[in-house]
Write a structure and sequence with these properties.
CATH topology: Spore Coat Polysaccharide Biosynthesis Protein SpsA, Chain A
Strand order of the largest sheet: 3-2-1-4-6-5-7
CATH architecture: Alpha-Beta Complex
Shape: globular
Number of helices: 8
Largest sheet: 7 strands, mixed
Radius of gyration: 17 Å
CATH superfamily: Spore Coat Polysaccharide Biosynthesis Protein SpsA, Chain A
Number of domains: 1
Number of strands: 7
Structural class: alpha/beta
């Protein structure tokens, strides 16, 4: 049986998020009073993000530097593997841009005693996407209802803001999700939901604090393509 040496690791992937680093750290400090560490997973930012993180004087903040931009799903996998290797009991993943409010973390942790994976649901609160532009609302909503139809689920599976209970979920089951891009979140949620208990909490999703989204039209196109691919793989070929 695994002996957990540390309580909680908050994983924050970054790529050119210099203007958001102190904002998200201040928000975390405001709401989170329990013992935790923070791991930034950076894809070789060129805007000064790396130097800023390196110069933060804190024994609770760590940096995993990658050679290049390898995909948001890949960044989460590397961060999660770090968390399991260093024997954290809980792993929380969130964006750096301010759209994921740390005030929800305490709520997730309260559920962690009985649940295996806790995700956030942007469709459980009325007008939760009110600050987003119309195109982003359409894409997010269409993806949610497409996944709901294909996989018969009410889970908001595409969100990156979530908590993994490392005591309950095996790392190898998370890594069954092969996608290294944005669809990692949907794929991993669908897989985990077949094996473990998945719970979700409703959240508001404000617009990003600073900078611009890294999601491109190519990400969106292949994202929808991969949803159908996952469906075919699971339902027709009976693969995880």
């Amino acid at each position: 049986m695994t002996s957990f040496k540390k309580n909680c690791l908050i994983i924050i992937p970054t790529y050119n998020e210099k203007n958001n680093i102190h904002f998200i750290l201040n928000k975390i400090s405001k709401y989170i009073k329990f013992k935790h560490d923070i791991l930034f997973v950076d894809d070789n930012s060129y805007d000064g993000t790396l130097d800023l993180i390196k110069n933060i004087n804190s024994k609770k903040i760590f940096l995993l530097k990658r050679k290049k931009k390898l995909g948001i799903g890949s960044a989460h996998k590397d961060g999660i593997k770090y968390g399991y290797k260093n024997k954290y009991r809980y792993i929380i993943t969130m964006d750096c841009d301010g759209t994921h409010d740390p005030k929800y973390i305490n709520k997730m942790l309260k559920l962690a005693n009985t649940e295996d994976l806790i995700i956030t649901n942007r469709f459980g609160v009325k007008n939760s996407l009110s600050e987003w532009n119309i195109l982003r609302k359409i894409i997010t909503s269409f993806r949610y209802f497409l996944v709901a139809f294909l996989f018969n689920t009410k889970l908001d599976s595409s969100g990156a803001y979530r908590l993994y209970n490392c005591k309950r979920i095996r790392l190898k089951d998370i890594l069954l999700a092969k996608n290294d891009g944005y669809i990692f979140f949907t794929e991993s949620t669908i897989i985990i939901n077949k094996i473990y208990n998945v719970s979700q909490i409703p959240v508001l999703l404000p617009k990003r604090y600073a900078g611009s989204s890294k999601m491109t039209f190519t990400n969106i196109f292949f994202g929808f393509f991969n949803i159908f691919y996952i469906y075919l793989r699971i339902h027709l070929f009976n693969q995880k």
